[in-house]
Write a structure and sequence with these properties.
Radius of gyration: 19 Å
CATH architecture: Roll
Mean pLDDT: 94
Number of strands: 10
CATH superfamily: Electron Transport, Fmn-binding Protein, Chain A
Bound molecules: flavin mononucleotide
Strand content: 25-35%
CATH class: Mainly Beta
Shape: elongated
Length: 209
């Protein structure tokens, strides 16, 4: 299928008055056009000195409560988020020349929500969550393979429980910005913002590109 044959959001997004439905449309568009991982997103955090850090994660869920991804809470990002309880995300869909930026406070998803998602992961990924001491030094590839073998033997039969250090974070947005490429770098930018994640969106502002 070529891009021309796909039905994408064509109406003027700057007319929209609600960001979640618009994000939903853009993610669906990206799912049709991106070669892989349309849900891949750069996740920014800050460390205790205020030094930013950024890496990719996969968005696993979103609704009006916020944007959810899963990780190891003992990882660098896990520690940075637990230290600040704030984060930002940036999607860039190259095929669509669109960007979405999300900022806000972070909450930890409920155990029930994390368990439900963990249960959908392939067995190997559930073992991996146990075997990987994410972001800590690994002496050799063999050490990781040994850890995988050990946990595979430990959980040879039955359910693989979710590690306590593996769960999800939800960014509860206080601002969501949509950006779309336009000729001559006169791009369209619209930012929705609100005082707190509990309030209604109190402003929608066009920004100079
Ligand atoms: C496309 C892509 C998706 C990724 N998704 C995740 C993810 O959902 N969760 C995760 O913990 N790491 C994910 N990673 C790995 C992270 O980018 C990163 O290497 C790892 O989480 C350690 O980051 P940290 O040391 O800052 O905690 C992904 C990497 C790529 C390239």
């Amino acid at each position: 299928m070529t891009m021309g044959e796909m039905k994408l959001t064509t109406d003027d997004f700057t007319e929209k008055n609600e960001p979640f439905a618009l994000f939903d449309e853009w993610l669906k568009d990206a799912t049709k056009t991106e070669p892989n991982d349309p849900n891949a997103v750069a996740l920014a955090t800050v460390d205790g000195d205020g030094l930013p850090d950024v890496r990719m994660v996969l968005l696993k869920d979103f609704d009006e409560q916020g944007f959810v991804f899963y990780t190891n809470f003992e990882s660098q990002k896990g520690q940075e988020i637990l230290g600040s309880m704030k984060a930002a995300m940036c999607f860039h869909w190259k095929t669509l020349r669109r960007q979405v930026r999300i900022r806000g406070p972070v909450e930890i998803v409920s155990d029930a929500e994390a368990d439900a998602y963990y249960a959908t992961r392939p067995r190997g990924s559930r073992i991996g969550a146990w075997a990987s001491k994410q972001s800590r030094p690994l002496e050799s590839r063999f050490a990781l393979e040994k850890a995988v073998a050990e946990y595979t033997a430990r959980y040879a039969i039955g359910n693989i429980p979710r590690p306590a250090h593996w769960s999800g974070f939800r960014i509860r947005p206080t601002s969501i910005e949509f950006w779309h490429d336009r000729p001559f770098r006169l791009h369209d930018r619209v930012v929705f913002s609100r005082e707190t994640p509990e309030s209604d969106w109190d402003s929608k502002t066009r920004l100079y590109p």
